[in-house]
Amino acid sequence: MTPLSLIRSTLLACAASLAAFAVQAGTLDEIRERGTIRVGVPSDSPPFGMKAPDGGLVGYDVEMAQLIADDLGVALEITNAVGSNRVPLLTSGRVDIVISSFGKNEERDKVIDFSDQYAPFYNGVFGPADIEVNGPEDLKGYSVGVTTGTIEDLELSAKTGDDVTITRFESGASGFSAYFSGAVDFFATGNVTAAALMENPNLPREIVPKFLINSSPCYIGVREGDTQMLEYLNGFIAEVKADGRLNEISVRWMKTDLPEGF
């Protein structure tokens, strides 16, 4: 082996060792030994994470992080995770996991791993409880308010015929006002937006979810190769789905049960 080849081999071995160390640093054994789990959560993304009046953080993701810490029997150490720093927080080793309304895509999947889905994030049709609507085919004879050019507009337009009135608005607020005034029978929006509307106890008209248009659920971000953590999280997510704790969080923050089959 030439000196240059030896140097290259040594550098590659060092890089592999560093990568292995980075993964090891995020394993459950190290977290338990440390006594804390470091979790990236949002602080300005309701209902996933937001500041409470006392200065602490509350929200769907915050509760999920606390459930995990409690299950592991360790303290929760929170780091603010925003859209731009979620992946770097993981790859740099500053946090063990990220719970921050993380959507999965091909680019992110190349550098980090993702758990099973833990939170619903979808676009859907919402309306009154006393009209049974379970899909686009049930909208015949009704009107639906949408914001012009949104995914809800495009999907509903493609899935309904002339017997459904799609009423388009330039803003979501205009569409909501039309629904509350009775100008349209239903409206289409994201579940997070609908949950924010449902926070108001004095709504002039009831809002309940009717059906999903498309779904882009949230996942927990894990350092790439941290198989031990990934297996634990997937098992824990399955557990809290089965025993109802995850649904309780959904009702508290999304104002609705988890979608059927979630």
From TrEMBL:
InterPro entries: SBP_3_CS (IPR018313), Solute-binding_3/MltF_N (IPR001638). It is found in: Cell envelope. It comes from the Bacteria. Residues 1-25 form the signal peptide. Residues 36-257 form the Solute-binding protein family 3/N-terminal domain. Keywords: Signal. Belongs to the bacterial solute-binding protein 3 family. This is Transporter substrate-binding domain-containing protein. It comes from Ponticoccus alexandrii.
